[in-house]
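Have a close read of this protein, sequence plus C-alpha cells, and explain what the C-alpha cells say about the fold. Thanks in advance:
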Amino acid sequence: MSLSIAPKTSPLPSLSPEEALPGFLARDFLSPRIDLNDKIVLVTGGTGSFGRRFIEMVAAEFKPRKLIVFSRDELKQYEMAQDFPADRFPFMRWFIGDVRDQARLEMAMRDVDVVVHAAAMKHVTIAEYNPMECIKTNVFGAENIVNAAIKRRVPRIIALSTDKAASPINLYGASKLASDKIFVAANNLSGEGGPTFSVVRYGNVVGSRGSVVPFFRKLAREGASSLPITDERMTRFWITLTQGVNFVLSSLEMQKGGEIFVPKIPSMRTVDLAKTLAPNIPHTVVGIRPGEKLHETMVPEDDGRSTVELEDRYAILPSDTPRLREAYLAAGARPLPDGFTYASHTNPERLDARALQGVLSAAFA
C-alpha cells in the first residue's frame, strides 16, 4: 500500500555541509509518535489543507481499521476519494456532516479511537462579516465535538488551534480561544477513564489554502507590477503542512489531558518573504487589515506562568492542575522564567532568505 504523495520525514531538502541551514529547521516532530495501526480515526474538516495531508500521511504510514473523513462539502469529498480508491484503501470512510450537528457527530464517532478536529471557519475577514456563522462552527462546533466524544467515550481527541487565539483582536481568534477553553475544560467533564482532550496551536502554514505564499506566487506568475505588503514590520510564525501533521501525531502520543501544545518554529518578516519569492517585484504598503496584528503570539505572558518547555515545543497547562505540571516537570520539562512570552517578533529563531528557500523546497516538493 502506498500513496502518490508520501510523507516527508524531514522539512529540509538535501544540502551539502557548506550549505547547512540553521539547526532549528531540522525539527520534524517525528517523535514521540502515536501508533494508529488497527485504530479508527476520524478527522473533521478532512478535505481541508491539513486534513488531506493528515489522511495522506496516515494512510501511507499506518494500517488503520478505519480512517474517516468528516466534512460538509460533497464535491471535495468526491474529488478526494478519487485519490483513495477502495481497492487500495479499503479503510477509508466518507461522512458528509457538519460539526454544528451533534447527532451526526455522535453517529460518526461510534467505536472511534482518535478524533482530530480540524474543521473551522478560518478566514479573518469573512468571520468578521459573518460573526454568527463563525461562532456556530468554531464555538458551538467545539461544544458538539466534546459532547459527542464524551457520549461515545472516544479515548483521544485533539483540536487544531491558531496563534490568533492568543490575545485575540479578531472574531476568528476569539472564537478559537473559546474553542481552546472548551477542549481544555472538557477534561473536567469526561469522568474517570473517559476521553482525553488536548489542543495544538501553531502559526501560518506554508502552502495551505489562503496562505500568503501561494498568493504571492500567483501574483508573480501573472506578472503583477507590485506585491501588496500590509506593514514592513509585520512578522509571522511559519510551519509546513508535514510538520503540522507530525506535530499532531506526536502531541496525540504525549497528551495527558488539558494541554495546549505549541511547537518551536521559526519566524520571518512578511516583507522578507515577499523579497525571497519575487525579488524583482517592488512592494506596495497597503496597511494592516481590520482584525490583523502586527505580530503574532503563541504563548502570551499571562499564560507563560503555567507553561513548561520541552525540547521541541511548549505545553500550556491549566493553572488549576498542579499534578499535571508536576508530571511534566518530573518527566524532564522545564519551567519558564517570569515574564516569558513566545511571539513572532521576539522569537530568536528567524528565517532568512536561504533558510526560507529550504522550507519552501520541502513544502512544495
Summary: The chain has a mean pLDDT of 91.
